[in-house]
What we know:
A: Translation Initiation Factor IF3; 4-stranded antiparallel sheet; 10 strands
Amino acid sequence: MAETAQSPADAALACLAGQGGDRHKGRAFSSDLSVDEAVLLKEIGYEPCGLVVGSGVYHIGIQYANWSNNEEMVALTQVMYQARQEALVMMERHAAQVGGHGVVGLRLDVEMHSGPHPIAEFVAMGTAVAATGQRPSGVWVSDLSGQDLYLLIRAGYQPVGLAFGACVYHVAHQGMAQVLGQTRQNVELTNFTEALYQARELAMSRMQQEAERQKAHGIVAMRIEQKSHIWGTHVIEFLAVGTAVRLAAAEHRRLNPEMSVSLNDAAQALTDAAAPAPGEPAES
Amino acid sequence: MSDRERDEHAALDRQQASIAALERGELPLAARERIDELRQKGAAWTSDLSVGEMAAVRHAGFEPVGMVMGSGVFRIAAQWGYLSNYGAGGSSGGRVRTYPCPHGFGYGMGGMVGVGMASSEHRAGYNWEHTNYEAGIAGARDAALSRILAEASDIGAHGVVGVRIIRRHLEGVGSSLEFTCIGTAIRRAGGPKLRTPFMSHLDGVAFSKLIHGGYVPVALVMGIGAMEIDPGCGTEWQLRSWSNVRIPQVSDGLEEARMLGINRLEGEIASVDADGAVGVETDFNAHELGGEAMLVELFLLGTAVRRFAKEPLDEPPLPILRLR
């Protein structure tokens, strides 16, 4: 790298010494973006404008299901969906307050605390970004990383929002006679298979409907989370979640990736694998 | 005096001299001596940069000078319940929110509704900020940062990269806290002397990308929010309910702790005249405090950056399909 008088290092130090630099205008932002993400987002015309968060704490009551039925736990599905929705709306409001046009790297977490009074905290957290160029209407939300978003936008797509669907399902217990009759065989537990199918399909179709309501062309990076939280083995929540996208350009733009073969081969074996990651407390 | 006694005396004197130096706001002897050694002409530099980080730091136009460290252990002053603070005439200046008993009984001790005394059945709930705890963490952090910066300026560095933060409670939450930071000091040969060296918790590779992306790190910035939630009878009724309901008091407490943390982080960013912070790490904890009360704490830590070039300086990134 040629180190001329105008090298970035000198420009950086001059800026720190209080001499010049093309400073950012507007309020100071916080962001949990990595450097790669921040730099890539800058390439596609977005600058971070703040860490945004929305959360709500709910008491999750008890819902009794019929012991021997496969059925949806409607009240639980409702609260699991609504609570996330409210956290998201709260976060979007926060994003609009700090002047954001979108939220990247969204994390949608639920933390359940069992105990005498089971409570659940629903948190939506991400980094709000503002478009430096033309301003899209409304705040879009995406759980994609900055890298993914960079590729997506370069390929001609625009994120529309988060699409998600939830379904809490009760899987029937088998009768005693049935269990005894099967102890010496390998058999498919068809009630389980059927229930998991049903619940997964419900969650996915709800997610799909949400995307359609937002007039999206598709959903990328979709995933299904399957958790029992605090409900034991027979009550399972399925959460289908992804980023709804729309093709903004006339057609999909090819990125023509360069192919590369890494010459690094297991170089990590030489370094201390037990060293703590940066920022992590090291235990002595 | 035997040799052994003499050695012990010498060690004790050294220890006291170190403590005296700390109290004067200087570095302890052991650190002082190591730094002096590093400053000598021809001294070997030390660094914990990996080979890749080293190459990246050199690519950005900097070179390593030496490892630097700063540490501080603080005792955190006790802070009793909100009501005892209230009775003593104030709540230590933090955020407070009251949740009156929905049946109009008991508002706590100093309340306005105070028809009957508060009972275990009917009492108000309080969300209140643990200002001492927050100030204690900030104090330990300030001590550690000022020491690492003193070491870095003494060896003529322009900044410190790859700063690792060790934050731990030595004797349980709310008593004593250690705050330590360790990193590699770097310098730009012939660069202007800075009043305060910059600091970054990002590694050498990220530092290099940041410089080439038109940003320069300024300082480590932190935000903390700590709220205690003492549920009132209204909240407890909701906790025992059979239906699925939102619990306003607990929701508010958590929201408040989070907003305090984020706002303080942004305040610190502005106070070092930076444009923003990247790589913010969040650490959210809830500690049970006995009874139904809990202490929720959000700790944020990031690298404040200043933008010195509007456009990224390098060629745009090349999409690559890794074949292995």
